[in-house]
Amino acid sequence: MHDNPQPMADTVFALPGHRLITLEGRDAAAFAQAQFMNDVALLEPGQWQWSGWLTPKGRVIALFALLKRSDEAVWLVLPDADAAALAGALQRFVFRSKVRIQLREDVCANGRFGAPVAASGATFTGDEDAGFELDVGSIDAPRTLTLSRTTVPPDEAAAAAWHAYDLEHGLPRLPPSQVEHWTPQQLSLDRLRAFSVKKGCYPGQEIVARTHFLGQAKRGLVLLEADAALEAGQDVTAGSVAMGKLVATGFDGARHRALAVMPLERDAVVLEVNGAPVTERALRDGLAR
């Protein structure tokens, strides 16, 4: 479980930065299958998966939870990306597809540290009137994400704990400075089952598949902790040798944490960021869907 005290399990709080994009229409699921890096066709209605959108060179533009309500309704829950810009960029690829892309300002994403009422694993529950519930936790540390029209008060401490939880479990919360820099393998998104190397074409698929089948993935995510503040984009060093780069950071009031892209095979060395020591921790499991 999380090492620091958590908000009360029945406390619901707003998740800042989380936005919803909906794809609606006859070709919604087919459009998502053609554009995004995970296999939407494997999902049954009422299931969700981690997924993302890549550049043609296989770099991650955005990560999100993809909910398949039906073949004509796919929802994207984005924790960090510029949702308006992403919706506009996706719109340029609609062409003749029968799909309407909409940024839903009327739906709020809220969080709670506690087990879902009915959702479990990759199965979400609810409807648009009552709201939707997703299981975004692990067995040892349950969490619930809800999508509804209900506005709840913000809670900075709870939101920071949520962010830290994501980092601890290997879900990279990419700031704008790290967008379009990293491949899915470099972000260890296989741990979340967030991309496919077997489905048909999608932007960046050739790079992703080649890296997978030729065994060229040499770097992946490492969880680091420090007493000093950390910032995405900073180098991780061992003496004068650059070892990697911070891609996502957070602070929950007790510890500074970061996810760094570093070599998968390396010697045990003392690591520093900006001259201050950092400690490597094991990534937690439980968010794969």
- Order of the strands making up the biggest sheet: 11-14-13-12-15-16
User: What is the annotated CATH architecture of the largest domain?
Assistant: 2-Layer Sandwich
Number of helices: 4
Radius of gyration (CA) equals 19 Å
Question: Roughly what fraction of the amino acids lie in strands?
Answer: 25-35%
- The fold-level CATH name of the largest domain is Gyrase A, domain 2
- Helix-strand sequence: EEHEEEHEEEEEHHEEEEEE
Please state the overall shape, judged from the principal axes of the Cα atoms: globular
Total number of β-strand segments?
16
Average pLDDT works out at 95
Spans of 5+ residues with little confidence (pLDDT < 50)?
none
Largest sheet: 6 strands, antiparallel, barrel
Terminal CA distance? 19 Å
Helical fraction: 10-25%
CATH class of the largest domain: Alpha Beta
Question: CATH H-level name of the largest domain... which superfamily?
Answer: Probable tRNA modification gtpase trme, domain 1
- Helix-strand makeup class: alpha+beta
- Structural domain tally: 2
Protein name: Folate-binding protein YgfZ
Keywords: Transit peptide
Organism: Lysobacter auxotrophicus
Descriptive report:
By secondary structure, the chain is an alpha+beta fold. It has 2 domains: 13-168, Gyrase A, domain 2; 176-281, Elongation Factor Tu (Ef-tu), domain 3. The chain is built from 4 helices and 16 strands. The chain has a 6-stranded antiparallel beta barrel. A 5-stranded antiparallel β-sheet has the order 1-7-10-9-8. The chain has a 5-stranded antiparallel β-sheet with strand order 3-4-5-2-6, with helices on one face. It is globular. The mean pLDDT is 95.
